């Protein structure tokens, strides 16, 4: 009977310790989370990205202000590449 009581006490102690650690860790995790920052669009563009009607300046305005220099370089190169593709489509007769 004494062994049963010892086992029950230890199991209950472990259960309470686990519940306490879980509560503490959830509280710490909730305190560490940063608020989400939403960014409003600079201006509304009615032309889809990559469309024939898109222009180089419009494409460049879609690059986020918070972009790193590397991200900005890749985005600018992509806009210039797309502009050359659009220019070749504009010279096709019948458009």
Mean pLDDT figure? 80
Strand content: under 5%
User: What Rg, in angstroms, do the CA atoms define?
Assistant: 30 Å
Question: Tally of extended strands?
Answer: 0
Q: Approximately how much helix is present in the residues?
A: 55-70%
Largest sheet: none
Query: Quick one: overall form?
Result: rod-shaped
Helix-strand pattern? HHH
Number of H- or I-type helical stretches: 3
Structural class call reads mainly alpha
Count up the domains.
2
Poorly predicted residue ranges: none
Distance between the termini: 93 Å
Topology readout:
Blueprint: H1 2-32, H2 56-61, H3 69-90
Please tell me about this protein's structure.
With 95 residues, this protein is mainly α. It is 62% helix and 0% strand. The radius of gyration is 30 Å and the shape is rod-shaped. The N and C termini lie far apart (93 Å).
Summarize the structure.
The chain has three helices and no strands. By secondary structure, it is mainly α. It has two domains: 1-34; 43-95.
For this entry, give a set of tags:
95 residues, mainly alpha, 3 helices, rod-shaped
């Amino acid at each position: 009977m004494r062994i049963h009581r010892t086992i029950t006490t230890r199991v209950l102690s472990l259960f309470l310790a686990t519940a306490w650690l879980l509560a503490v860790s959830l509280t710490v995790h909730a305190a560490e989370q940063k608020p989400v920052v939403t960014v409003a669009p600079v201006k509304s563009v009615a032309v889809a990205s990559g469309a024939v009607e898109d222009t180089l300046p419009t494409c460049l305005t879609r690059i986020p202000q918070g972009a790193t220099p590397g991200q900005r370089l890749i985005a600018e190169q992509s806009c210039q590449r797309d502009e050359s593709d659009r220019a070749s489509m504009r010279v096709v007769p019948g458009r």
